[in-house]
Amino acid sequence: MNIWDGGRRRVYMQEVGTRDGFQSEGIFVETRDKIALIDMLSKTGMAKIEVTAFVSPQAIPALRDAEIVLREIERNPGVIYTALVPNVRGAERAIDAHADELNLVMSASESHNLSNLRMTRDQSFNALKQVAAIARDAGLPVNISLSCAFGCPMEGDVSASTVLEWAERFVEEIGSRGVTLCDTTGMAYPRQVAELTSQCVERWPQTELTLHFHNTRGMGLANVLAAIDAGANRFDASLGGIGGCPYAPGASGNVCSEEIVHALELMGYDTGVDLDALIAAARCLPPLIGHDTPSQIVKAGRRLDLHPLPADFAAVRERTMQGKLKPKPHYGMNIG
Amino acid sequence: MNIWDGGRRRVYMQEVGTRDGFQSEGIFVETRDKIALIDMLSKTGMAKIEVTAFVSPQAIPALRDAEIVLREIERNPGVIYTALVPNVRGAERAIDAHADELNLVMSASESHNLSNLRMTRDQSFNALKQVAAIARDAGLPVNISLSCAFGCPMEGDVSASTVLEWAERFVEEIGSRGVTLCDTTGMAYPRQVAELTSQCVERWPQTELTLHFHNTRGMGLANVLAAIDAGANRFDASLGGIGGCPYAPGASGNVCSEEIVHALELMGYDTGVDLDALIAAARCLPPLIGHDTPSQIVKAGRRLDLHPLPADFAAVRERTMQGKLKPKPHYGMNIG
C-alpha cells in the first residue's frame, strides 16, 4: 500500500464554497438559492459544511444573510454545520442561529494579520480566547483556522515553528477541537505540506486537523496527497473551485471539491461523497454567481463519462479492414 | 527520502507546446514568431523540444511551416529537437529538415486509432515499421507515442496489458529508443500511472520512457509525481499549459511546463530548467495565440514573488500596538 493506492482509507471532505467562495463573488447570491444549494450539499456526504461567516454586513455584503441561511437550511444529522466568526459579536450571532461549531480565524503571519485584521497576532489571540469562552458556555466546539500557514504573500515563508506555536496555543490554552492550516494564497508545496502535517499529527493526535488548500499555483491535489501521506484525513474544498485570490486575478481559488473527490475515489480512497450528487450541485453554481467555475470536472466530466463513436465508425472500420479506405491522419481529435 | 522530497533527483523536461499546443490553436502563429519562441525555449534547459509535426498542411494548417521552423531554429547542442511524423512522407520531410529524432504516433485504443487515423492498430504498426526503417537508414532514433495509454474517450479503460503489448512491439521489434505513454484526453489517475509506469520501467530499463499528461481533470501534477515515484524521470509538458482537448471545451490542455517545473523545483527535484527564462517564454504566448493561457504561474507568479505591504502598514502597526485603532476585520484580502 502506498499513497497512490487509497485502500479504502477514509478521508473527510468539508465544503467551504458557500463561505470562502461566495465571500469573494461580486454579486449577492439570493438567500433562497444559498439555502437550496446547501440543502443539496447536505445530501452529498460532506462531513462538514462551512455555511457562512458572521462578519460585518458592511464588510462582506455577500454574506449579510448569515443568520437566515444558517437557521433555514435543512440539517442532516450526519453533517457538522460550522460558521466562521471573527469576534464576540459574530460568535453571539452564530450561536443564536444554531451553528454546530465556531470557526475562529487569525493569521500565522504578523504582517497579514495586521493588514487584514488590524490586530497583532497577540491581540487576535486574546480576542479569540474570549470568543472561545463564549462558545464553551454555549456548549459548542471551536476550530481555529490559521491563515498563511504555508507562507505569507508579504513576508514570504512562515516558519513551521511559528505555525506550530500558534496551533499549540489554541489546542493547549483554549482547547480547540480542531486546527485548520490554511494555504490562504496558494503558497504551499508538497514537501512543506508533508513536513508540517507530520508534525501536527504527531503532536496533537487527538485534534481534528484540517488542511485548507488553494489551487493558485496548480499544486492543490498534490498537496492533498502529501498531507494524506503524512497522516491527515480531513480537507476543505470548494464546490466548483470557487473562491479567488486577490493577489492573483484570474487564478484558481480553493481546491475544487468535485476534482478532489473524483481523484481520491479513483485512487481508492473512501471520501463518503456521492460524486454524482456533488457534480449536480456544482452545475447549479454558474447561474448563481454569473460566471463559469474553474471546475475541470464540470467541463470535462468524470474520467469514464464516455463519448459516442463517430456516426460513420462502423463503415470506416469495415472499409479500413478491407483496405478500401486511404489512411487519413487528419487528427481531428487529438494526437498527443 | 520520499516522493515529496526530490533530494536533487534529476527529472528531464520535454517541451511540446509548439507542436501539441499550436496544433489546436485556431490561428496560425507566424513562422518567425515560432522560431523566436523555440529559440527562447532552447535556452531554458529543456532536454527535448518537440518542434513541430510533419503532417499534411491541409490537415493541420497551423503547422504548415514545419520545414522552415525546424531548419531555421538555432540549435542548442544540449537539446534534442524532435518532430512528430505520422507516415513515410512526414519522415522524409523531417529528415530533410534535420530532425534529431522522429516521434511516431499511434493509439493504444483500436476505436481511437480507427476514428483518428483510419487505420487499425495493426495497419498503423506496419506503416510505422516502414517509417522506423527510413529513420534507421538516416541514422536517426525514433520514439513511439502511444495515445490513449490511460484510457480512450470512446472505449473507456485501456488495459495495461494492451499498452504493454504495443510498447513491446515498438521496443523489441522496431528498436524504438523511447516510448511515450500519452494521456491524450486526461483520463490518467495516479494509482494507474504508478502501476503502468512501474511495469514499463521494470521491463525496459534501457528504454527512454516519457509520460505525457493532460491536466483535463486536474490530476496532471499528481500524475507526474506518481510516475516519478514509480521510476520515471522524463515528462512532456506544454508552455502555458496550451493544447486543448476536443472532448472538453474549456478544460486545460497539456500539463503546464512552468507549473510542473515550479512545483518540482520547490520539492527539491533537479529539472535543469531555468524557471525565470521559462516564465519569460510563457509570457510571450498570449499575443501569439490571441488569448490567455491556463498557466497558473503566469497569473499568480512564483510562490515567493511577494507583494508589497499596504502603503499605510507602518501607521496601522504603530496605532494598533498603541491600542488606538479599532480592529477591522474587513477581510479585504483573504480570510481562508
SSE layout and pairings?
Two copies of one chain form a homodimer.
Chain A: E1 12-15, H1 17-21, H2 31-42, E2 48-53, H3 66-72, E3 80-84, H4 88-96, E4 101-107, H5 110-117, H6 121-137, E5 142-147, H7 160-174, E6 178-182, H8 190-203, E7 208-212, H9 220-229, E8 234-237, H10 257-266, H11 275-283, H12 285-289, H13 296-300, H14 313-321
Parallel strand pairs in A: 1-2, 1-8, 2-3, 3-4, 4-5, 5-6, 6-7, 7-8
Helix pairs in contact in A: 2-3, 4-6, 8-9, 10-11
What does this entry show, briefly?
The structure is a homodimer of 336-residue chains. Chain A is α/β, with parallel strands linked by helices.
CATH architecture of chain A: Alpha-Beta Barrel
Q: Going by CATH, what is the homologous superfamily of chain A?
A: Aldolase class I
Number of helices of chain A: 14
> Do you know the CATH topology of chain A?
TIM Barrel
Number of domains of chain A: 1
Strand content of chain A: 5-15%
Q: Biggest sheet of chain A, strands in spatial order? A: 1-2-3-4-5-6-7-8
Radius of gyration of chain A over alpha carbons?
A: 22 Å
Number of strands of chain A: 8
Largest sheet of chain A: 8 strands, parallel, barrel
Largest contact between protein chains?
A-B, 111 and 111 residues
